[in-house]
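Tutorial, part two.
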Amino acid sequence: MKRFLIGTSVLAAALQVGCERDVSQPNLEYAPDMYGSVPYDSYAPNPNTRDGKTLMAPATGSIPRGYSPLHHGPGPEEATRAAADLKNPFEASEPVLERGKVAFNRYCSHCHGSSGLGDGLVAARFPRPPSLLAEHARGLADGQLFHIITQGQGLMPAHGSQVAPEDRWKIVHYLRSLQSPARTARKDTP
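Running the prediction step on this input gives:
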């Protein structure tokens, strides 16, 4: 018991001494490399890599996580091939159509108009885009519409880098809802 009391007294004295610190003196540094490391800047040369750059290129043939490549190039022939190869992975449901409408209004309505008639704001200064309710547009397969949104066609630029693939498929579903005969009859009448 006596040793216990002496030990706790020594410990208490050591703690009190440790609490009183001379602020004019620097603290002791234990393992300074833990907080004072010297990293390489992203674009700085680096002697530790094969190409001598810190920011290395991805491995050849690698695909970013969450990305699915489209194995169809631009052009009408590729769009026709996409019509046969690509199928819409989403079922037409209320949440899918709602998201498709949001994406359509965000990325497509400035040219094609909110109803798909080709009467968007861009049509005032540039050639009018085709109506998405026309017979030709109705005859396009879902994969072909997805390809056109992704790669562009004619004067329409490619939107593959701006619109996520899931949203492109949902836009296709929303376009189909705009093209339904009952809804189209109402839109075409004055």
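Residues 183-190 have pLDDT under 50 and may be disordered. In part three we will examine how such features are distributed along the chain.
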